[in-house]
Structure formats: structure tokens, C-alpha cells
Amino acid sequence: MSSKTLTVAARLLRRCFHKPSRVFQVDPVRLYYASPQVVTGSAVRTVDLRSDTVTKPGAAMRQAMAEAEVGDDVLGEDPTVNELQKFAADMFGMEAALYVPTGTMSNLIAVMVHCRERGDEMIVGDLSHIHIYEQGGSAQLAGVHSATVTTLGDGTFDLDQLISKIRHGYPNSHYPRSRLICVENTHNVQGGRVLPLSFLQELRSVADKFGLAVHMDGARVMNAAVALGVQPSVILQHCHSVSVCLSKGLGAPVGTMLGGSKDFIQRAVRARKALGGGMRQLGVLAAAGKIALSDMIGRLEEDHRNTRSFAQGLLQCDPPLYQVDQTTVETNIVRFRLRDSQMSPAEFCERMAGVDEEEVKALGQGVQVLMFPHFGGSVRAVWHLDISEEDTQLAILKAQFVAQQHKRNSVRAA
């Protein structure tokens, strides 16, 4: 930290021991996808760490969208979409790619194409986004059954357990048919963990042995590629298909690229249409996607660096309220826990989002830090292109303020 920042921190900590005054009203943040009321006012600085989906397109991206050449994409006549799809396929090292409105739809399309008959089965991690956060669409809409394997701390799963879940001897009137294995990279619930290349290679060998396809929910696979220092194609060579979000850390306002073989994408076009994902003059959005893939990947390391800085800052807070394993902070997501069970993750997030007058006096402004209670009694914070190094330092100072305030209140209660 700079000397100026340290001076601010000293003032902030000194004032933590004074009785707080009136609190600006903030709705509690209690649900993973909740939308808390944002405090407004010139004295309040908001640091939004809820997700990397909250990014807004910059000036260059907006200009490209305004000037995009367009056509009817359902007829295959939108030149900007066609350019984007070709660019993405080359980057993925795959034969073809398809622009899809959302990651959830993209994953569902992959399941529908790989599992061609109702009653087919896919094998997924029990903490995967597909299994937890996509409303069971594979069963609800595609008629595909899910078998789960235990997700390990690094986002992988045990391959022997995977093999034990594969149905053998098809056709059998009692069992569904195993068709597909799904992996997630980086792994959201496990805190942005990067799947090791060795795991993906072994997984593909298992899939080939038993005639199964491998689909990667690669919503943040570009973060994984940057963390590993490799091209995306090095990761994706072990997969039959991949879904890559443009609307997270890459900063596009909407869109996901689905990649695979030419036959896979031809079938995916039909599935997209059935799901209502066929759009017309789509080039306006595809122009943003082109900038996302061409210009925004290199800057992801900045997000990773700020995330590590925040994790280190939590560990240096006094009193030591926060518990975080820095070895698990690999990309732009950090999960941490509170050492004091008297403060719940929801209450912590509420305090981080609140601003009182003592804080404003100490910092010269209020700092509203938005984040979510997360899986397993933890708190999740996510970095993205709209969060600067200065924002990160302010978030650390606010976490220090909350720790000191909690200690003071605990002493008084005792």
C-alpha cells in the first residue's frame, strides 16, 4: 500500500472504536443471485464483487456494436456473427462454433446434442454449475438423467468413482444409457479453481475407452488458460465440446460461444432454434463478442492479481476475522470464511454493503462492497474489468473496518 493509503487505513481503524452513528439503509444480501439496493450519493464508492457478470461494455465495444454490419443470422447471413464464430472455432482448436444467447442455454444444447435420446444419462460433478444452478434443464427440457460424482476441492473428481457410475451392457431395460461427461473449468463453487491438464487428459482417455463424449462448461475457461499460461486450445483438445461465456470476465454484455465438430454444431443450430435462441440481426451483439475474444483475454491477469491481493489483505486484517487458503486462489474468485460463528456470511455481506457516518468521516467517503454469501458457509468475491487496484485496496480497508467493528461490538456484548 502507498503511504497515503496507510494513512487512510490508520484513520479508519482509529475511528472503529467510536460508537457508529446513523447507518444508511441497505437491503440485506441473503441470496446468491439477490440484487441488493445500491447506496447512492457522492460520498459513497461502490465496489461490486458479486460476480464478473456485472461488467459493462466500454466505449470501444459500444462503438463496435453501433457500427456492426448485420444480417439475418437464422438464415446464416449475418457477417459479423459468421466472423465471430470462425474466430472462436480457431481459438478453441475446434471445427466450428455457434453464438448462443446464454451459458445455460449453451450447456443445455450440448447435452441435447450429445444425448440424443430421452432417457440418456450424463455424469456431472455434484457441485457443478450445470447440476446446481441451471434449474435441472437437462431433465426438465431434454429428458436426460444426471448421475453425480463427488466434486473435489480442486474442481476435479475421482476417475475410479466416475468409472463406477458408467452404465455398462446397454441396452438394458433397467438402466439409462451413459452418453456424456461434463466438467467445469474454472470451477465456480470451488472458488475459480483451474482443472489440471493431466486430469483432463486422463478423463478423455476414460471417455474414449467407454465411448462417451466430454463437454466442458468453460464459462471462465479463458481465466484458466491465462492462469496456466497456455492457449485455450491446449485445454480444449481434451473435450468434444465447450461452452465459453463472453459476458463474464471478457466484458461483453451478452453471449456465449459453443464449440465442437461441424456435425455437433449443425445439430446445435437445430437445438438452439427449438429453445428459442435463434436471433436475427445478431451482429450488434456479436461485435461485442469479437472484442471480448480478441482484446479482453490478456487483461484477465490483472483480475487474478487483484484477487490474490485481496486474499492476502484478508489474512493481514487485525483482528484475524477471516480464513482463506491462498493456495486455492488461482483466478478471479476468492472464497473465504469467518472465524467467528457469531457473524453469519449473510450478516457480514450486509455489513460490507452498509455505510455509516463514522466510516465516511474516516475515509472521506463511504465504501460499499457488494458480495454474496456462498456455498458451504463461505463468502464469495469475484474480480472483473470494472474493479481497479484502488477498488481492491478500498475493499481490504472495508473488511478491516468490519473486523474491528465486530470486535468492538463483541467486547461490549460480553
UniProtKB/TrEMBL annotation:
InterPro entries noted in UniProt: ArAA_b-elim_lyase/Thr_aldolase (IPR001597), Low_specificity_L-TA-like (IPR023603), PyrdxlP-dep_Trfase (IPR015424), PyrdxlP-dep_Trfase_major (IPR015421), PyrdxlP-dep_Trfase_small (IPR015422)
Names of required cofactors = pyridoxal 5'-phosphate
What range(s) does the Aromatic amino acid beta-eliminating lyase/threonine aldolase domain occupy? 48-331
UniProt keyword terms in alphabetical order: Pyridoxal phosphate
One Pfam entry name: Beta_elim_lyase
Family, similarity comment: Belongs to the threonine aldolase family.
* Name of this protein: Low-specificity L-threonine aldolase 2
Source organism of the structure: Labeo rohita
